[in-house]
Design goal:
The protein is an alpha/beta fold. The chain is globular and about 60 Å long. It has twelve helices and 14 strands. Strand 2 and strand 3 form a beta hairpin. It is 32% helix and 19% strand. Strands 4-1-3-2-5 form a five-stranded mixed sheet. A four-stranded parallel sheet has the order 6-10-9-7. Strands 8-11-12 form a three-stranded antiparallel sheet. The longest helix is centred in the first third of the chain and has 14 residues. The structure holds zinc ion (2 copies).
Length: 358
Amino acid sequence: MQLYNTLSAKERAALIEEAGKDRLTLSFYKYAKIQNPREFRDQIFIVWDQLEVLGRIYVAYEGINAQLSLPADNFEAFKEHLDSIDFLNGVRLNIAIEQDNMSFLKLKIKVRPKIVADGLNDDTFDVTNKGVHVDAQKFNELIDDENTVLVDMRNHYESEIGHFKNAVTPDVDTFRESLDIIEEDLKEHKEDKNLVMYCTGGIRCEKASAYFKHKGFKRVYQLEGGIIEYARQVSAQGLENKYIGKNFVFDERRSEKISDDIIAHCHQCGAPCDIHTNCANDACHLLFIQCDACKEAMDNCCSETCKEIHALPYEEQKALRKGQGNSNDIFKKGRADHLPYKKDLRNIFEVLKNKSQA
Ligand SMILES: [Zn+2]
Ligand SMILES: [Zn+2]
């Protein structure tokens, strides 16, 4: 039985094109005890592969986190399969706001120690003791409350292109880092402030809300289904949209437009722009924001050095890379000293100060 991808991304893209069928991009997650992640992984691979599912899915003892696309025609069959699995019966599916048939080009289902790399030791607190889940309407009410501190639980390169109005957007590279910063900055307000948080699809807030309750915060709320579900409810119910800019997503689309505002700038020239790109130099691949003019002038690279290397014959580039690890691991994602217009994000103190003065 074939349990792994056999096609390259290029071959897959050609097949999708040829099939001419509309695909649906969606995501979901569920914390649940999975006894045998390896076996579970193989079971779902067999069924989903037949349903032409493509995507990135993590399975762990603690649950499943899935981001995927599939032919719209197969949606009912897919839903039926999910419902046939006890802990996934009725699971909320976050349907993408902006659809793109090429959002995923491979089916990768991986067994991992965790479904989100959270850097937390689970034994220290009870993950099921979560914050209060709120829908878009309640969320809008809460963030208008003067006793609310609204915190973006995502990383700097995500909130840079879009976030809720008046949200605190910690300037962090990892989820773990932001937990510590938020706790430290809000230690005087564990009981008197509403700690309201949100993330892309809700999964990070599941852990974060339990963590903050464990740390003594009394009024912890989280946006159910994250920004994706918020945008859906806002448009379905005609609510006020308090999100500005784009929602960063982890597939080929890179983002979805939630409002027409462009809140970020090209990291090279400062022009209004909110399009992320990866530096074309294979030894770099830095994720950064680049406008069309800079893209052309810099040959899709983040620096003159990268541009020079990228222009070399492939064999020479390979020789240069030899013995060097990839310099831009997760901790350098979207950061580099040579990008003059990389935005400094606001810290919590600043936001609280502005609020008390207002
Ligand atoms: Zn530019
Ligand atoms: Zn570069």
